Hints:
This protein is of the alpha+beta class. The protein has helices at about 1-20, 140-150, 155-170; strands at about 40-45, 50-60, 65-75, 75-85, 100-105, 110, 125-130, 180-190, 195-205, 210-225. The protein has a 5-stranded antiparallel β-sheet with strand order 1-2-3-4-5. The protein has a 5-stranded antiparallel β-sheet with strand order 6-10-9-8-7.
Amino acid sequence: MRNMLRKALSVLLMIATMFSISVQPVMAAPSTAETVNNGLEMIEQNFTDTTIYAKYYLTIDGESLLYTEYGEIVNNTFVLNSTSVKVDENKEPILSTQMTERYVEPIVSVATNDVGFRSSCEYKPHTETFSFKADKWTLGLITQAIVTVTGLAAGTAGVIAGALIDSVASGLISTIPDSVYFDGERCVSRSTGKIYYRYRGNFYNDSSKSVLLAENVSWSRRWGH
């Protein structure tokens, strides 16, 4: 009887030991930023100096959505209407998920038509980092963020925004940055209460210039009222 009891206790001890070894606490995976799974799959697109219109598919964190966005520069603000709807594996819209949002942001650096520039304005080599913040990785919101800090034409900012999204999707950069880098030339002209700038050059993802976002860009902007 004692031998049987010892054997039973021995088996129970072995099972408990195996359980304690095999069962380990599972740590939650660290949260990560949104992942762009594929680039923009454009359906319709129309960019001008003052407006952008785009209808496209975009997959983020494995979830595919159809976006329809229209943005317009109005009285030194950028007004964006963005509609999104989830789609199934056949790209059929799931209408219960449709959502429309409106965003209005002031343009800090006002675009100008060159009035106020002196004819003697001299271009000099210039680099500049333009910092921005986009709440979501949509073409419209990134465009809006870029326009508001640079004074670029809406269509040019839209090209840069699309290049950023596609660069993340293709692995050229790891995430949508919070700034873009300009490398080129700039001339500066001053008048009463105002400073005028002219730029010509290229935009990159950052100072490493590893990804060219837009080339031969020229525009003018103004500080002051």
